[in-house]
Specification:
The protein has 166 residues and is mainly alpha-helical. 64% of the residues lie in helices and 4% in strands. It contains 4 helices and 2 strands, in the order ββαααα. The chain has a two-stranded antiparallel ribbon with strand order 1-2. A hairpin with a 6-residue loop joins strand 1 and strand 2. Helix 1 runs antiparallel to helix 2, helix 2 crosses helix 3 and helix 3 packs antiparallel against helix 4.
Length: 166
């Protein structure tokens, strides 16, 4: 423990508090980062939904195959939008896409969990209840998970810098 003589008083003073490791600073999301993430998410959702509806309708695929393909397409649109827009100043890699995909699967599981609890646990079995729990409450919670995972695990560093065009 380090001690010093205080000027004028001659008393010993401990400097142990100065030896503590500094706390890591957590970066808070800024409005442009949140807005960019939301805009990309809406675009990815639209791509996912449009492809799902086309695959189920004119293409005639079963629901699980259609949703699986539309989910991969939506993830790809979201990754491209975030990599080229919201987090464009951070380097990208194929491994990063894998982590991004895993984060999106975690978000999808959150949505499924909301439906599971609502439909089977609480007994709300109507199509409207499934929509509210999965596409409403589940989507909000999943978006929080996806935002945290995207900025913490995939695109590390500061949030969006500058405009979309510059």
């Amino acid at each position: 423990m380090a001690h010093d003589v205080r000027p004028g008083g001659g008393q010993l003073v401990s400097h142990a508090h100065q030896l503590e490791a500094p706390r890591p600073r957590t970066r808070r999301p800024k409005a442009p980062e949140l807005l960019g993430f939301a805009a990309v998410g809406l675009l990815a959702y639209a791509a996912d939904l449009a492809l799902f509806l086309w695959l189920r309708g004119p293409a005639g695929l079963d629901p699980l195959t259609a949703k699986s393909l539309s989910f991969v397409a939506g993830c790809s649109v979201a990754y491209a939008g975030n990599a080229l827009g919201t987090y464009r100043h951070i380097s990208r890699s194929l491994a990063q896409y894998g982590i991004f995909f895993a984060v999106n699967i975690a978000g999808a599981l959150v949505q499924l969990l909301c439906i599971l609890v609502s439909h089977y646990g609480l007994g709300f079995t109507s199509p409207r209840a499934d929509t509210v729990s999965g596409a409403g409450i589940g989507m909000v919670l999943a978006t929080v998970v996806r935002f945290w995972g995207t900025r913490t695990l995939v695109f590390r560093g500061e949030g969006r810098v500058g405009s979309w065009t510059g």
